[in-house]
Amino acid sequence: MVVQKPGDTQFIRTNSESEAVWPVVASVKATPVVVLGSDEHWGLGILRSLGRLDIPVYTASSNPQAPAFSSRYCIGKIALSETGKFTEQSLQHLLSVGRQIGRKSILIPTSDQGVIFVADHADELAKWYTFPKQEAELIRSLCSKKEMYYLAKKFNIPTAEAVFPQSKRDVLDFLETASFPIMLKAIHGWRLAKLRRGQVNVVVNTRSELLEEYYAMEDPEEPNLMLQEYIPGDDQAVWMFNGYFNESSDCLAAFTGRKIRQWPAHRGITTLGICMSNKTVEETTREFMKAIGYRGIVDIGYRYDARDGRYKLLDINPRIGCTFRLFVADNGVDVVRALYLDMTGQPVTAASAPNGRRWLVEDLDLLSSLVYHINGSLSLKEWIRSYRGVREAAYFAFDDPLPLLKSAVFDIGQVSGKFAEQFARFHQE
Question: Do 319 and 201 fall into the same domain?
Answer without folding.
Answer: no
